[in-house]
Amino acid sequence: MSIESKSEQQTALPEGYSLEQDGDGDWVLMGPPDVVLFSEPGEGLLIGRCDEATALSEALDHLASQPSRSMTP
User: Fold this and answer.
1) Three-state SS at 45
2) What pTM did the predictor assign?
3) What is the Cα–Cα distance from 17 to 39, expressed in whole angstroms?
4) Which candidate, 19, 4, 11, places its Cα nearest to that of 49?
5) How close are the terminal C-alpha atoms of the chain, in Å?
């Protein structure tokens, strides 16, 4: 794997996740319906009002800090 490929992977959300803007212009990280990002499955994680690059960085940081799905029962 080249360094370029590794960089590309670190700048994209995993499959099933997306960034969306709500009606107020805030970025929200959305995940698969069975994944808990905030308090309930299917509920998005509010990132806030910022540029898309910052929102993506915050989303990736949040996902990296979460336990692996394979670790949960």
Assistant:
1) strand
2) 0.76
3) 16
4) 19
5) 32
pLDDT tens per residue, the chain (73 residues)?
334 433 344 579 999 999 999 999 999 999 999 988 988 888 999 999 999 999 999 999 999 998 865 444 4
* Number of C-beta neighbours around residue 55 at 10 A: 20
CA distances from 70 to 8, 16, 39, 66, 73 (A): 24, 16, 19, 11, 8
Contacts 24+ apart (CB under 8 A), 69-72: 69/35
28: how many CB neighbours lie within 10 A of its CB?
Answer: 19
